[in-house]
Amino acid sequence: MPTLTYRDALNQALREEMQRDASVFLMGEEVGVYQGAYKVSRGLLEEFGAQRVVDTPIAELGFAGIGVGAAMAGLRPVIEFMTWNFALLALDQIVNAAAKMLYMSGGQLRMPIVFRGPNGAALQLSSQHSQAWESWLAHIPGLKVVAPATPADAKGLLKSAIRDNNPVIVLEGEMLYNLKGEVPEGEHIVPIGKADVKREGTDVTLICHSKTVSVALKAADQLAEQNVSAEVVDLRSLRPLDETAIVESVVKTNRAVVVEEGWPHAGIGAQVVDIIQREAFDHLDAPVQRVTQADVPMPYNKHLERAAKASPEKVAAAARRVLYLE
Amino acid sequence: MSAASKLHLTMLRQMLLIRRFEEKAAEAYALGKIGGFCHLYIGQEAVAVGSLSALREDDYAICSYREHGQALVRGIPANAVMAELFGKATGCSKGKGGSMHLFDAKRRFMGGHGIVGGHIPLAAGIAFANKYQGGDQVCICYFGEAAVNIGAFHETLNMASVWKLPVIFLCENNRYGMGTAFERVAAVTDVVEHARSYDMAAEAVDGMNVLTVYDATRRAVERARKGGDPTLLEVRTYRFMGHSMSDPLHGVYRTKDEVEEQKKKDPITQLAEKLKEDKVIDQAALDAMDAEIHTEVEQAVKFADESPDPDLAELYNDVLAD
User: Which of A28, A45, B51, B97 has the fewest CB atoms within 10 Å, i.e. the most exposed one?
Assistant: First the structure.
């Protein structure tokens, strides 16, 4: 199986879907001539032309809405945001238009559109460029939200998102674009709504998604050195959430830590904990712990930034707490 | 009868239908049959009728939340529009949308939208899709003058001009955004001037004269169909009712005298007088037309009243498509 970066896996998904379906087009800032701010769209302008790879002005609200309108008239737009921080300007179109069109039209207008781009913190980009928006987006009925952690999942979930007849939010990671992994060639589809056990274990479940999957895997390595067997469950989809996978793992290990890049208040982890307390209460041997970004805007200074982020050490420590080892 | 006279008669009938429909909607609202927000179109009839008469059936229309008039002119039966206002299963949005969200995809009526200015980019997107698919359809987008102060308006006009999208931006300037006079909140009060910033064709139009609106829209349609060029039309009109049903007719922001003065320009009276002068219609025929429309609207209210509420199981339907 070929090894690809996460960036090239996304590029492959876009290319294959644009080859397969002439109604798929890509629109966003710097996607064409510049080849993508993060080079996800490299080569697409040359292959598909300017009608299908559309460079926009810096006008997130406007071009997100143009995507919504194009979907109303039968196209399958892929709207790239340079980062999800900028996409806040387009939230009216995502929440008030895309997510509700089918419902408020009494089922008449489908909304096959993808909104994608990097989410969460990179390195030393400070407060406005280092935010994880998944709990905001996953809150909205009418949206689907995915957050792939590996190149293979990035390809398979983006292909699913483009083929879906609903608005799908694809949260990528700036720090993940260079991550390498094996990616199946051609038709590789990862269904939306299915979690994936990235490492099997018996003593504690680490529930994570996107960038925090690698954090949890490193924490599992550290825990193994202390003879703790951690299971790593990658949610992959945040709406719908794979409740079955979460519950099955917790029933097996009886202990859980939920890890995310976002802030703690009303985060994705809060929703996961709600599922666990309702569906696996009698199987729990300890209160569930959460590891999140510190409840502060992201600072610029690298020591402060490191202190604010979830880390393998913090996750391993939380796991030891649910095991009453510290 | 000439083709022009036939068209004028159709326009008169459509304007009267809107007027009588809205009067009945106001009654039904007062009786508690219609809930939520309900924005009436009385006074502005010439705008929807004149502009939509210049479009083909396969063209697209998209509106703000003051869209009962456009929905009726587009051909959605009065029964289905009234039933939607009543929130019934037989409504054009199955009772899920209400007054602000009338939809009929078959008739390419792409909705009433409730966030001021939020649907302006959608219109450009529909036009983008038409061009992408190689069609010559145009999309007409209705919004009030208050939406001109919103970023979505400016972002969209810019992209529509850069990409030559076949879209008509029709600003219904009725002078008040709810209770705020436009000149109190807009540095440039001639909306048409904004087109210059985006190198776009534009026209200011008398919105109380249905034929003037029709002619201006035809020019815009031709521009869009030929070269894909967008147009901004500022159609100057006036609403005779309050902003919504919860708003008094003149309130504190405009005087009764001002409203009465504007009513002298009633678009329906203007066209009726012209048609009488042209000997296309006489008072008896006009009365007969009005009576027929009264019956149609009464029937719509009866239909809406007797229609079933949506089944409770509908609550969870159409959140996501298969």
Answer: A45
B279 CB burial (10 A radius; 0-12, 13-18, 19+): exposed
Contacts of B150 (CB under 8 A, 6+ apart): B116, B117, B120
**Parallel/antiparallel/unpaired status of strands A230-234 and A289-291:** unpaired
Q: Which domain holds residue B257?
A: 3-308
Q: Compute the nearest-CA separation of A178 from chain B (Å).
A: 33
Question: How many domains does chain B contain in total?
Answer: 1
Task: Give tens-digit pLDDT for A51-71.
Answer: 999 999 999 999 999 999 999
The CA distance from B125 to the nearest CA of chain A, in Å, is 4
Are the CB atoms for A228 and A204 separated by under 8 Å? yes
Return the pLDDT at B250. Answer: 74
pTM equals: 0.97
Give, as one character, the DSSP assignment of residue A175.
G
Does a structural domain hold residue B317?
Answer: no
Is B314 contained in some domain? no
* Rounded Cα gap, residues B263 and A283, in angstroms: 73
State whether CATH 3.40.50.920 applies to domain A196-322: yes
State the Cα–Cα distance between residues A299 and A24, nearest whole angstrom: 39
* Phi/psi-derived region of residue B84, left when phi > 0, alpha when psi is between -120 and 50, beta in every other case: alpha
Which one from A16, A17, A29, A60 is the annotated catalytic residue? Answer: A60
- List all residues of chain B from 49 to 68 with a beta carbon under 8 Å from chain A: 60, 62
Q: Is A142 on the interface with B (CB under 8 A)?
A: yes
Question: Rounded to an integer, what distance in angstroms lies between the CA atom of residue A119 and that of residue A170?
Answer: 9
- Kindly report the CATH number assigned to the domain that includes residue B266: 3.40.50.970
- Please check whether residue B318 lies inside any domain of the structure: no
Strand stretches in chain A, DSSP E: 3-5, 24-28, 53-55, 76-80, 114-118, 144-146, 168-172, 180-182, 196-199, 204-208, 230-234, 237-239, 256-259, 289-291
- The residue extents of the domains of chain A are 3-182, 196-322
Respond yes or no on whether the N-terminal peptide bond of residue B267 is cis (omega within 30° of 0): no
Query: What is the sign of the dihedral through the CA atoms of B167, B173, B179 and B182?
Result: positive
In a domain, B320, yes or no: no
Cβ-based contacts of A95 with chain B (< 8 Å): none
- For the segment(s) A3-182, the CATH number from 2.20.25.530, 3.30.70.1450, 3.40.50.970, 2.60.40.1120 is 3.40.50.970
Which of B118, B139, B320 minimises the CB distance to A166?
B320
Find the helix or strand (DSSP H, E) in which A268 lies: helix A268-279
Amino acid symbol at B95: G
* Number of DSSP helices (H) and strands (E) in chain A, helices first: 13, 14
Active site residue A60: yes
Beta-carbon-side half-sphere exposure of residue A173 (alpha carbons within 13 Å): 30
Same fold, A3-182 and A196-322: yes
- ipTM for the predicted complex comes to 0.96
